[in-house]
Every structure is written in structure tokens, then in C-alpha cells.
Amino acid sequence: MLRLLAPLALSLVAASPAMAEGYYSAVPATAPAKASIVTRSTVWKCADGACTAAKAGSRDAIMCELLVREVGPVSRFAAAGTDFDAAALEKCNARAKG
């Protein structure tokens, strides 16, 4: 039984970093000029009009606010696959540079 479970456990460990890279996802209202953006210690990768980042130590709302300060308003922000509702998105976008 252990022989059967060992490869499965290894595949889960190997998949974890890749899954963590997309913990946050956002769609800026206008495509960012840079392919890579750093907010505090979080690196965001942007391509094809969307940005993603690994999980960080800050609350999800703070991560959204940090991103909009760099890229402007976002039309969508999600953490762990769950989209922000309209009220949370509006509050986040209020932090965008004018």
C-alpha cells in the first residue's frame, strides 16, 4: 500500500508550488505596461490582460488594494478561486491612483 501512496504524495508536493502561483488573479481595466509587478514582497505576473500572484501574508483585500495602486482599477479580483463581490471590488478600486 505504501508503494502505491508514495508516488501520489510526491505528485501532490510537486504540484503545490504551481498551484500557489495563481492564488490571486486579477483583470486590470487596462492592460499593465509591465509583465512583472512587485507589491511589497509579492511578485505579480501579468500576461494577456490578467495578473496572477502566489499567496502572500496580507489579507486578500489588502493584496487587491496594493495591486490597484500599481495597475489602476481592476474589473475582477479573485483569491483562492473566489471572486470579490461588487462591494469588495468597489472598495478595492477606490485605492487606485487617480
Automatic annotation (TrEMBL):
Species assigned in the record = Sphingomonas bacterium
Q: Which UniProt keywords apply?
A: Signal
Please give the superkingdom of this protein's source: Bacteria
Supply the name of the protein. Uncharacterized protein
The record, for InterPro entries, names:
CC_3452-like, DUF8200
Q: Where is the signal peptide?
A: 1-20
Q: Which NCBIfam families match?
A: CC_3452_fam
Task: Name any one Pfam family assigned in the record.
Answer: DUF8200
